[in-house]
Amino acid sequence: MFCNCACRYPFSINQAIPPMDWEEYVSEICSDMMREQSPKRLFQVRGKLYELLINCIPPEIILKKLLSELLKKLDEELKHEVCHWAAYYEHRMRMGQKAIIHLEAFVAKFMSVYKAFLIETFG
Q1: In whole angstroms, how far apart are CA 93 and each of 21, 45, 78, 113?
Q2: Residue 8 parent element (H or E)
Q3: Is 3 exposed, middle or buried (0-12, 13-18, 19+ CB in 10 A)?
Q4: Distance CA 26, CA 13 (A)
Q5: C-alpha to C-alpha distances, 84 to 23, 36, 40, 75, 103, nearest whole angstrom
Q6: 112 CB-near residues (< 8 Å, 6+ apart)
Q7: Are the C-beta atoms of residues 88 and 53 closer than 8 Å to each other?
């Protein structure tokens, strides 16, 4: 079986590095969060966050990757507020014991802020 150009060996200088599976999963979570802001969606996202934690992805890395992916998709107006809440929940996560609580709280806060922004912008 032949690999595509992304997995050539020996490596070339300009070779693109494909994202890891967990990074694609986080990107999928971000798309879910932006597509629908509801308790049902929050529950689904929580299950996906558990999946990442079970597979030994550190919670701080999950939060940073979530923020990174969200910032790629957000309007300039929201970026500052989302960064503020990410920092807030990262600090709480470091002080607390159960990372999932703080990750889920960040997701819920983001959904709340984003839904309010959509209502304010589009009515």
Answers
A1: 24, 18, 22, 20
A2: none
A3: exposed
A4: 27
A5: 22, 22, 25, 15, 14
A6: 37
A7: no
In whole angstroms, give the CA distance from residue 78 to residue 117: 8
**Amino acid letter, 50:** Y
Residue with the two structure tokens 């969606």: 41
pLDDT at position 7, please? 61
| Mean pLDDT, rounded, for 103-120 | 96
Cα 98 from chain centre: 18
Question: Which residues lie closer than 8 Å to 59 by C-beta, 6 or more apart?
Answer: 53, 93, 99, 100, 102, 103
User: What's the whole-number average pLDDT of the chain?
Assistant: 91
Entry pTM: 0.86
pLDDT, tens digit, 9 for 90 and up, residues 62-109: 999 999 999 999 989 899 999 999 999 999 999 988 999 999 999 999
Q: Are 47 and 100 in contact (CB under 8 A)?
A: no
